[in-house]
Automatic annotation (TrEMBL):
<feature type="domain" description="FAD/NAD(P)-binding">
    <location>
        <begin position="11"/>
        <end position="284"/>
    </location>
</feature>
<dbReference type="GO" id="GO:0004174">
    <property type="term" value="F:electron-transferring-flavoprotein dehydrogenase activity"/>
</dbReference>
<dbReference type="GO" id="GO:0005737">
    <property type="term" value="C:cytoplasm"/>
</dbReference>
<comment type="similarity">
    <text>Belongs to the FAD-dependent oxidoreductase family.</text>
</comment>
<dbReference type="InterPro" id="IPR023753">
    <property type="entry name" value="FAD/NAD-binding_dom"/>
</dbReference>
<dbReference type="GO" id="GO:0050660">
    <property type="term" value="F:flavin adenine dinucleotide binding"/>
</dbReference>
<dbReference type="Pfam" id="PF07992">
    <property type="entry name" value="Pyr_redox_2"/>
</dbReference>
<keyword id="KW-0285">Flavoprotein</keyword>
<keyword id="KW-0274">FAD</keyword>
<dbReference type="InterPro" id="IPR036188">
    <property type="entry name" value="FAD/NAD-bd_sf"/>
</dbReference>
<keyword id="KW-0560">Oxidoreductase</keyword>
<comment type="function">
    <text>Putative FAD-dependent oxidoreductase.</text>
</comment>
<protein>
    <submittedName>
        <fullName>Apoptosis-inducing factor 2</fullName>
    </submittedName>
</protein>
Length: 360
């Protein structure tokens, strides 16, 4: 049977992270898809920290958008605003849409060119290699997993992790948090809770850092791993501004449409869906949105649209180097070989590559 003709409907996807990438990939054979994204590559975020200790790992985690979006118009620029018909871009241009998907996640300061990003990982690795002591600032998932990667691959280096909260990884339960803390301590990571540190250029050059209690820490280098702002600032003067909550997240309905709109959807970390923000859930958002846009293009009624239910008990997996990890599951929390087997060995990179049509 012949494939149905591709629709003339224009679907604009703003944001080329996991959520945006999967929406664009799923719709490219069904509609005229335009991806607006400043970077020329998709970075699978789960591989970022492994790439700092093993730069070659990034060859698999940084994927040129043109490698998997073979029938998508890609515009490498930032969106600066939207109207009810167009997306405005930083180069002064505009793109008209029939359907819009907003997937700008968190503010990202990474370079826009894949080769330059690869070079950044090499430089981070050289910084780690040349340092005897390393300060990690922030005890969320990024800080914890970076400290774990360094402690695993460079057991002779002194690693200090400073976190402002009373426990690590506040997005998981206390039991999982305690297991992570115990693992880090077992690897001789010095974990300082209820402390902050403001890094000045003078401190960074001298290698001496002052934490909020007044104690001084010496380290040859540091990595700042604190949370990033939601990437919704560009929407603050748009027609969807009333749909932004007090944290800057877009409020969405059960079909993942932005509140008050029939044709604007949102996916991933930028949404107010009450669940932990993890990549596999962003993929789930993308699949629901792609299905709904296909249905709308084909003239389906509202009642036929797919719905998304927040996964409030979604599993949380924290990688601790290559052979360790902690998994918080709905009924229990476990550490050791099981979460390591599930996530830590390859960090789901092969799985994601296969899902977008590439070799693992």
């Amino acid at each position: 049977m012949a494939e149905p003709a591709k629709s003339s409907a224009v679907v604009v996807v703003v944001g080329g992270g996991v959520a945006g990438a999967f929406v664009a990939k799923s719709l490219q054979s069904h509609a005229q898809v335009v991806l607006i994204e400043p970077k020329d590559y998709l970075e699978i975020p789960y591989g970022e920290l492994r790439s700092k200790v093993e730069p070659l790992f990034a060859e698999r985690t940084l994927i040129k958008h043109t490698d998997y979006l073979t029938d998508v118009r890609i515009i490498n620029t930032c969106a600066t605003g939207i109207t009810e018909k167009e997306v405005l871009t930083e180069d002064g241009g505009s793109v008209t849409y029939d359907y819009l998907v907003i997937a700008t996640g968190h503010v990202d300061s990474a370079t826009r060119i894949r080769d330059e990003r690869l070079e950044e990982f090499k430089q981070d690795n050289q910084k780690i290699e040349s340092s005897r002591s390393i300060l990690v600032i922030g005890g969320g998932p990024v800080g914890v997993e970076l400290a774990a990667e360094i402690a695993t691959d460079y057991p002779g280096k002194k690693v200090t992790l400073v976190h402002k909260g009373s426990r690590l990884l506040e997005f998981v339960g206390p039991k999982a948090s305690k297991k992570v803390l115990d693992w880090l301590v077992s690897k001789k990571v010095d974990v300082l809770l209820n402390e902050t540190v403001e890094v000045t250029s003078l401190e960074a050059s001298s290698g001496t850092y002052t934490i909020s209690s007044g104690e001084k820490i010496t380290a040859d280098c540091h990595f700042v791993c604190v949370g990033k702002r939601i990437g919704s600032g560009w929407l603050s003067h748009s027609f969807v501004k009333e749909s932004l909550d007090d944290k800057g997240r877009l409020q969405v309905d059960k079909n993942l449409r932005v509140r008050g709109s029939q044709i604007v959807f949102a996916a991933g970390d930028i949404t107010d869906v009450p669940e932990i923000k993890q990549g596999y859930l962003a993929q789930a958002h993308a699949m629901v949105i792609a299905k709904n846009i296909k249905l709308l293009i084909n003239g389906s009624t509202e009642s036929k649209l797919a719905t998304y239910t927040a996964n409030s008990s979604a599993p949380a997996l924290v990688s601790l180097g290559r052979k360790g990890g902690v998994a918080q599951l709905p009924c229990f929390t476990v550490s050791g070989w099981l979460p390591a087997f599930i996530k830590s060995r390859d960090l789901f990179i092969g799985k994601v590559r296969k899902e977008i049509g590439l070799k693992a």
